[in-house]
Amino acid sequence: MRGAFKIGKIAGIEIGVHYSWIFAFILFAWIFASGTFPAVIKNQTQTVYWICGIIMALGIFISVLLHELCHSLVAIRKGMKVSSIVFFIFGGVSNIESEPKTAGVEFLMAGAGPLSSFVLAAIFLGLASLFASPDNIVTPVFAVLSYLSYTNLLLGIFNIVPGFPLDGGRVLRSIIWGATKNLRTATLVAGNIGRIFGWALILFGISQIFNIQLFGITPNILNGVWSILIGWFLSSAADSSMREQSLQEHIAGVKVKDVMDKSPQCISPAASIESVVNESFMRQGLKALPVCNETGLLGIVTIADVKKVPQEEWDNTTVQAVMTRIPLDSVSEEDDLSAALKIMGEKGLNQIPVMSQGKMIGLLSRADIIRYLQTQQQLGIKNKPKPNTDISGRPV
Ligand SMILES: [Zn+2]
């Protein structure tokens, strides 16, 4: 995720934090320190409320981390690679480098998260009961442990809602996928439920803002705004997962070599930025150009690289000074186009070199892929899924 920084590594998985998560952390600490705890813990100082609020925010962070680790560890056990877990404003996300190959794996992987939240809720409840005072006075330790139990319970319940991309939606998808052997139908059903749930959250949020009491919940503007944001995030994630499913169908069985530019232009490292901009970017509409000399590929120069240098200096700055140097992310010509697209999406790349035995043999760009899909549509060509694979190109 762009805008994220690393904070550590657990079991080979990088743990990252997106700047938006810091906002959520402060918000949680503030809500607990200024609202919840002063209401339930009597006669304490502001400092105590704030310490409890910060411990609460940290506890939520650790709970979400454990939830995501459970997804990731199941994925690793099932032979998938997990590159990172990143925290952002709405929680954590595990970046797993491939989709589950079978319905059974998806079921286990998705189910592990909510299960861990329910187990954590039980553990915190047990710990809280150890600190319960006989005369029913709520101590800070008891309050923090109880709310951590409650938060994990809510996290578990929220995640078992059967709408994709929530864990419950993935579990539902895996069940339909297993029963029908059709990932497309499964994604459509789970995705549409996810979309409806997202919209329901948005409507609930609006009712909260307009002070309408629903389900016995006292209206609260902050809850309203939060529900609208999460609802919007979920419905757009459901939309994009369904769009991705349809894209996967169009490129099922297509290899990188079918789409790549087989003889991409190369520019010398000594060329000036001015010449690249004028000749390649402006005249030919290219967005990136490999940089090579007689020994082979040295790097790649993109519009973003060029923009780092003030325009007045383009004439006397060489490509070598601004290019992104090797080693670059690359794919091989026999890779599936869907795998290449996934790498490009995750790393935010518009193009990726195609390498064979250490040599660049082509360049794959988003523009090439769009052109391929448009031509495919104009000609009315339908991809025949490979035998023994379902519609998305995954082994059944
Ligand atoms: Zn989860």
What do these coordinates show?
A four-stranded mixed beta sheet has the order 1-2-3-4. A hairpin with a 2-residue loop joins strand 1 (4-10) and strand 2 (13-18). The protein contains 13 helices and nine strands. The chain folds into two domains: 4-250, no CATH class; 256-365, CBS-domain (Roll), CATH 3.10.580.10. By secondary structure, the chain is an alpha+beta fold. Helix content is 56%, strand content 14%. The two termini are 30 Å apart. Helix 2 (46-77) packs parallel to helix 4. The radius of gyration is 25 Å and the shape is globular. The site of zinc ion (ZN) has 5 residues, from helix 2.
Question: How would you briefly describe this protein structure?
Answer:
This protein has two domains: 4-250, no CATH class; 256-365, CBS-domain (Roll). Helices cover 56% and strands 14% of the residues. It has helices at 19-40, 46-77, 103-130, 140-159, 167-180, 183-209, 221-250, 256-259, 273-284, 303-306, 319-322, 337-347, 366-379; strands at residues 4-10, 13-18, 82-88, 91-96, 288-293, 296-302, 324-325, 351-356, 359-365.
* The number of domains: 2
The secondary structure category is alpha+beta
Q: What radius of gyration results from the CA coordinates?
A: 25 Å
Strand order of the largest sheet: 1-2-3-4
- List the helices and strands in order: EEHHEEHHHHHHHEEHHEHEEH
How much strand content do the residues show?
5-15%
